[in-house]
Amino acid sequence: MKISRLEPDASGIVNWPTLSTTKKCVVTVGVFDGMHRGHQAVIQRVVQLAHQQGDFAVVILFDPSPKRVHSYAASHSGAELPDQELRNHEDELMAASERIRLMKQLGVDWVLSISYNLAFAAKSFRYFIGTLVGKLGMRTLVLGRDATMGAGRSGNVQAVEELSQATGVFTLDIVDDAGPGYTWVPQIVHQQVPDGPGEPSDPLVEMSKAEMRAWTKAHACKKVRMWSSSNVRYLLASGRIHAANAVLGHTYAVEGEVVHGEKRGRELGYPTANVSQEHEGYMPVDGVYAGWLVDLGKPRQDSDSDNQSQSDNHTQTLTADPGHDVRLASGSVWRWPAAISIGTKETFASEGKQYERVLEVNAIAGDNWLDLYGHRVRVEFLSYLRPQKKYPDADALVKQLAQDAADSLRIAQESVG
Q1: Exposure string over 376-389, b if 16+ CB within 10 A, otherwise e
Q2: pTM of the predicted model, to two decimals?
Q3: At what angle do helices 241-248 and 229-237 cross, to 10 degrees?
Q4: Three-class SS of residue 58?
């Protein structure tokens, strides 16, 4: 798979690469945050049509997301998103590099990553589609049923279909990406710690219609697709890991570098890997979880010459460590069952002291001591175990940590059959 990182100029015009002088392409467009089942359905259709027609399967990825760009502009007098804000946002489910990795697994031939900005956003959907046909040789455009594009988001599927029929230069293929239907989530998601141990249930299941109307009104809810990034974010904020993973079609994960902590876990006999605050992925609600820890190794350092050649031609082959997928694979020697803790270390907080929120992972690796400092790790979430609490002393905490480790090991083993 090839990747092109494209920067629109000051007027919003993109210098599109020439994919081929002979082959056409099938294209889809979006942010694809989380790469959930809806996204997968769209991309799988792109790959299917491309194979049938002998075309390239192409994904146009907006990074940063249009929502971030327009939200920043709305609160900063129409200003562009500054460079320091371009890093992964705390509300993003998945880094762009991880989305691209999953696109490769689905069979995509080319990812065109657009540095989305206001000048680019001001172009009409007609202009945008025209460039895809004229510059890329787009034969077919694949969209989800609720997709929109172009200035003012005026390019919905109906408008795009009318353009297709009027011009006859491309066809539109619409994918039903809503999955099992729709659900309700609060417009502003606040993290809500579950009341007790165990995976929380869906609060809407047992409600009557009247109760549901009252609940959605009280929480200022909006109706969203079950297969949506908004729903996944809400589920993670409620500790509903099983439901989130069902929507994603894969295990939810956060990635980051292991940094030095206070080493209290080691003193208690349960050493933990502390993940940097500069992690990638939306952090679920505070609590203890069962999951996996995967050692991705030390970050790869590309040479200056490599970076220069990539910036000159805008196109590169996928630069991820060729062993990355091997490390992630089931049964990998770099993968361990883990008890995962998100919180503020309440047991050790002295009166009036507030610890920062941290992600700590106890890898269940037998008697082996894992020296992961400076390594990048992936923390995969399988199940919510319990809320955080303050224990009366270290002995009580150690007893609970032993139970967490046992529960996590059992759940991890069950997840691989």
Answers
A1: bbbbbbbbbbbbbe
A2: 0.90
A3: 160
A4: strand
Provide the number of structural domains found in the chain: 2
Domain boundary (160, 175, 190) is at 175
The closest alpha carbon to 39, from 55, 25, 59, belongs to: 59
**Would you say the C-alpha torsion 359, 255, 106, 332 has a positive or negative sign?**
negative
Q: Yes or no: say if 66 and 46 are a contact pair by the CB < 8 Å rule.
A: no
Strands (E), 18-107: 25-30, 56-62
Which of these, 250, 286, 291, lies nearest to 273 by C-alpha position? 291
The CA-atom distances, in angstroms, between 310 and each of 3, 7, 112, 313 are 10, 13, 14, 6
Which residues form the domain of 66? 2-175
Q: Are residues 164 and 48 in the same domain?
A: yes
Q: In degrees, to the nearest 5, what angle opens at C-alpha 275 toward C-alphas 380 and 240?
A: 35
Q: Are 189 and 149 in the same domain?
A: no
Beta-sheet pairing, 252-259 with 221-225 = unpaired
Contact, 203 vs 244, CB < 8 A?
no
For 145-175, how does the pLDDT look when each residue is reduced to its tens digit (9 = 90+)? 999 999 999 999 999 999 999 999 999 999 9
Which pair of structure tokens corresponds to residue 349? Answer: 């907080």
- What is residue 319's three-state secondary structure? coil
